[in-house]
Amino acid sequence: MELRVAIKQGARRALARFWGQAVAITLLSIGYQLLLAILEALLQNLTGNPPYLDILGTPLNPFDDLPNLSPLAFGLLGGGFVLSFLIGTPLDYGARRWFYLRGGGYQPDFGDVFYYFGSVSAFISSLWLAFLLGLRRMLWSVLLLSPGPICIRLGRWMALRAAPGSEMQLATGLRLAGYGLTLCGGLLLFVCLQRYTLARYARFADQNLPAREAIRRSVLASRGRRVQMALFHLSFAGWLLLAPLGVPLLFVQPYRWMSLAIYARLLLTEGPKRSQAADA
Q: Which stretch of DSSP H or E encloses residue 265?
């Protein structure tokens, strides 16, 4: 608890004379996402290919809509994802790098947000690291989140065919177990994925660091700290609940990013020391 408070105090001190740039970076991060969403919606309206179809003719009930499976709809959705990945990833990494540098006592310029657009190698390296991290997160998600839905579907299948009595109780038990597994799997996944949180910060500390080595250092530095890291993320939940109000998000997000950057710097600094102590 004391460490968490000290980190957040350090974040406020680091932002003291840089709130203007921090808020501008947050606006930029939100703005490009809104721009891409608006562009995608415009293209969908112009081509007459909405992402969902109201088959039953109930415009007031969006929950019975079905996905639009037409090739053009898939193309628009895939194009939006690719464009978001190609633009959003280097921009997000540049924004996080700005906070990492500022948290270390440096005075980065606003233009440093576009660092990963400055060269082909930096641009590709950010995409490659994001791809490897996304692949690992997807595999962990499949591993930890699959058992719950499988049990739920199996329970529903049995309920449709079971006779009243023990078979129906078994079907109900499977569904309840599935809900429990889904909840536990989600919580466990949130903790497990903390192993990859420090990878991009390891890259910020050494731009020549290969992606796989950045991931390895993240896994090493987070070992034994993943529950603490998850709780640190959750400590901002109250602030993030103010996000729908709009304006508070412009101040909460920089505060959160700066706190995470300082925490990451601390963990990455302690990682090699812990490894050397273990070897000794």
A: helix 247-279
Q: What is the pLDDT of residues 175-212, one digit of tens each?
A: 899 999 999 999 999 999 999 999 999 999 998 999 99
Q: How many CA atoms lie within 13 A of 116 on its CB side?
A: 27
* Dihedral sign (CA 206, 112, 125, 252): positive
SS3 string, 68-91, reads CCCHHHHHHHHHHHHHHHHHHHHH
CB-count exposure of residue 158 (10 Å: 0-12, 13-18, 19+): middle
Question: Taking the alpha carbons of 245, 251, 253, 255 in that order, is the dihedral positive or negative?
Answer: negative
**Chain mean position to CA 29:** 14
What is the separation, in whole angstroms, between the first and last Cα of the chain?
29
Helix (H, G, I), strand (E, B) or coil at 52: strand
Q: Report yes or no: 152 and 104 within 8 Å, Cβ to Cβ.
A: no
Q: Which of 40-50 are b and which e, b meaning 16 or more Cβ less than 10 Å from the residue's Cβ?
A: beeebeeeebe
139-176 pLDDT, tens per residue? 999 999 999 999 988 888 888 776 676 777 888 888 89
Please name the amino acid found at residue 64. D
Q: Are 256 and 236 in contact (CB under 8 A)?
A: yes
